[in-house]
Amino acid sequence: MNRDRVETDVLIVGGGLAGSTLAHALAQTSLSTVLVETRDPSQLEQPSFDGRATVLANGSQRILESLGLWDRVAADAEPIQSIHISERGRFGAARIHAEEEGVAALGYTLENRILGGVLWQALDSAEGFTCFAPAELSSLTVGKNSVEAEVTAAEKRVSIVAKVVVAADGTNSDVRRKLAIATHEDRYEQQAVILNCATELLHAGRAFERFTPDGPLAFLPLSAGRVAVVWTLSHEQAARVSALEEREFRSELQAAFGYRLGRITRTGTRTAYPLARVRSAAVIGPRAVLIGSAAVNLHPVAGQGFNLALRDVASVAEIFTEQLGDRSVVSDPGAGDTLDRYQQWREQDQKKVAALTHGLIRLFGYGAPPLAASRGLALMAFDLVPGAKAELAKQTMGLSGRLSRLARGLPLMPSG
User: What is the three-state SS of 334-383?
Assistant: First the structure.
C-alpha cells in the first residue's frame, strides 16, 4: 500500500458541522489545516447532515455572519419570535418574546443539511486546506512538538504530522479514546424521535417546549410553514410510536402536544436516537483539544448542543490565531499555554450549559419526582419575576460570558 506524508498546522478529525466550521474559519488565516472524515462529505449523509434541524442562537448567527456564511443560509433560516414553555395537564406557563428582549429574533431554526452543504461548498475552494474523506484514523501518536496520525484513505496510507489535533468527531470520539481521556455519562433512558410536520395553523415564528410525563416535546418553526419536532420518550415508547402507521402516529403526537397550532395535517420521516449527557474528563491534552460533542454532549431539551459547539469553534480558532500577526513570535497552536487559555475560556460556559440542560431534565423529564404543582408554580414565577426571562434568554442566545471576536461580529483576526 502506498504511503504519503503530509505536514500541517492543525489536524481536525470529524467533518460534521463543528469540524467543518472550524476548518472554514482557519482557511481564512495563514494556518494550514487537514480534515479527516469517515464519510464522503459530497453525499452529506452523516448524522450531522441528516434531516434534523438545529436551533441557532443569536450568538451563533453572529458567528456564521462573521465567517461569511449567514447570507448563504439566511433565506432558509426561520426566525423564532417567541417561545412558549408549559407542562401538559398542569397550570403555569412561561413565555419569552423577541420584542421584549430587544432582539429581532430569539434564534433561528435551520436544517443541518443546508448549513452542511454551504460549508462544504466553501471548503471546496479553500486555500491551505486538505481533506481526506472517506478516511479512517488508524493511529494517533503524541510527541513533544507534534502529533502524528496514520490515516487510510482511498486504499492509501497517509501519515499526517500536525502541531495540534482537534477532536470534532462526536460523542463517541475515536480521538478521545486514542488519547485515553475518560468520560462521565448520565444516561437518561430516553430517545429523541425527530421529524418534520405540517400543521393547520401557521407557526408564525412560535416555538413550543412542552413537558410531558414521558419527557419534553419541542415544536420548532421551520421555513416554508413546516415545523420541526423533537419528541423525547422512553426507549419502549419511542420504539412503539416509531412503528405506528402515519395516522395513528399523528393522533398520538396531537394528544401529546395539543392544538396550539391546530391539527397536525402531515408528518414526515421519523428517526430516533438515544439520549445521554456525556462529559469528557478533560477538553485538552498534550497537543490536543476536544470541541463540540467530543467534549460535552447534551440533552436536546434547550437546543444548546450545536450552539455550545459553535462557541467552542469560535474560541479555539481565535486562540489558535491570536499570535499570527506578531512576526516576532513563532505561532504554535498546539503549545501548552495556548491550550490552557482555551480551557480556561471555555470551562465555565460548558459547565453552565451542561448543568442547565441536565437540571431541566431532572425537574421536568421522564422519571422526574411527582412535583407537578411546584413545577407549575416555578413556571409561573419564571414568567413573572423581573429579570428571570432576560437572564435565561441571554444564556440560551449565546450572549453571556466572554464572547469571541466572531460572536461580537468582528473578523477572526484584527486587520493590520
Answer: CCHHHHHHHHHHHHHHHHHHHHHHHHHHHHHCCCCCCCHHHHHHHHHHHH
Higher pLDDT, 63 or 86: 63
Confidence (pTM): 0.88
- Superfamily of structural domain 3-76+109-185+276-365+404-408: FAD/NAD(P)-binding domain (3.50.50.60)
In angstroms, how far is CA 68 from the centroid of its own chain? 19
Mapping DSSP to helix (H, G, I), strand (E, B) and coil, where does residue 242 land?
Answer: helix
**Cβ contacts of residue 8 below 8 Å, gap of 6+?**
32, 33, 34, 130, 160, 161, 162, 163
Helix (H, G, I), strand (E, B) or coil at 213: coil
The domain spans of the chain are: 3-76+109-185+276-365+404-408
Please report where in the chains the cell 458567528 appears, as a residue: 63
Query: CA 405 to CA 175: how far, in whole Å?
Result: 28
151 contacts 55 by C-beta, under 8 angstroms: no
Among the residue ranges 70-84, 235-249, 322-336, the one predicted with the least confidence is 322-336
